[in-house]
Amino acid sequence: AQSVTQLGSHVSVSEGALVLLRCNYSSSVPPYLFWYVQYPNQGLQLLLKYTSAATLVKGINGFEAEFKKSETSFHLTKPSAHMSDAAEYFCAVSGPGANSKLTFGKGITLSVRP
Amino acid sequence: DAGVTQSPTHLIKTRGQQVTLRCSPKSGHDTVSWYQQALGQGPQFIFQYYEEEERQRGNFPDRFSGHQFPNYSSELNVNALLLGDSALYLCASSYGRGETQYFGPGTRLLVL
User: Fold this and answer.
1) Smallest CA–CA separation between A43 and chain B, in Å?
2) Which residues contact B25 (CB under 8 A, 6 or more apart)?
3) What CA–CA distance (Å, rounded) separates A17 from A41?
4) Residue A101 near chain B (CB below 8 Å)
5) Which of B8-17, B49-58, B98-107 has the highest mean pLDDT?
6) A99–B43 C-beta distance less than 8 A
7) What is the model's pLDDT at position A42?
8) Average of pLDDT values for A93-108?
9) CA distance B66 to B49
10) Residue A53 near residue A66, CB atoms below 8 Å
């Protein structure tokens, strides 16, 4: 079975500060890992994904994440927060293999202070 | 290029009723997955359809059923609605051997 742990339900940063959202996974097989963002009253938008290629993955809107097998982690970072980054962020694990179901964490709400 | 679309956007039902939600996948995609997102929670996998057959199923009761049509669109049916079925229902599409699922805006279901 696969699972994802996102510690803490809420992170608050100042505009321009570093964003760090933590994700740890559990998987008995080599995982595929994803970060999705959800704005209020909307669906999920893919930020970035790791599928066994480069361990440092760059995504949209300046976000990136690093796959660390030894730590079973896939933390999401952004050097400088923008007000528009305020949203709910979900880490998910699947695979390997095509079209495996996604298993999501509980999500982290990111607030950005002016 | 149209993304994943879902209808309706909102729905209110009463306990015991039945509901049908619809999803059209992203152009070129042939696989549809359904997820339930309760308030304050991450999405939970319900099932996945490929070539008009259910390929995978999550831990949901038989009250939840689905269908995929030849044009790859899909329906989610929920019978005998319970208050606990109130949630955002998300549809995601992907292609064949692809690992990335793209989500629609969801249908918010409220059961009274």
Assistant:
1) 4
2) B4, B31, B32, B72, B73, B74, B91, B93
3) 26
4) yes
5) B8-17
6) no
7) 86
8) 84
9) 8
10) no
**Is residue A102 within 8 angstroms of chain B, CB to CB?**
yes
Look up residue B66 and give its amino acid: G
Q: Decide: helix, strand or coil at residue B43.
A: coil
- Which tokens in the block code for residue B55? 């390929």
Classified as helix, coil or strand, A71 is: helix
Peptide bond into A40 cis (omega under 30): no
What distance in Å separates the CA atoms of residue B56 and residue B48, rounded to the nearest whole number?
A: 5
pLDDT of residue A97: 65
- The CB-based long-range contact list for A59-64 (8 Å cut-off, 24+ gap) reads A59/A35, A61/A85, A63/A19, A63/A35
**Dist CA B70 CA A68 (whole Å):** 41
> pLDDT digit string (tens) for B3-41?
999 999 999 999 999 999 999 999 999 999 999 999 989
Q: Residue B42: which of A42, A99, A106 has the nearest Cβ?
A: A106
Number of residues written out for chain B: 112
Q: How many CB atoms lie within 10 A of CB A39?
A: 12
Question: Which pLDDT does position B96 carry in this prediction?
Answer: 74
* A107 contacts A9 by C-beta, under 8 angstroms: yes
Say which residue the tokens 């209020």 belong to.
A40
Residue B111 predicted with pLDDT over 90: yes
Length in residues, chain A? 114
Question: What is the rounded CA–CA span in Å between residue B65 and residue B26?
Answer: 22
Q: Is the pLDDT of residue B53 over 80?
A: yes
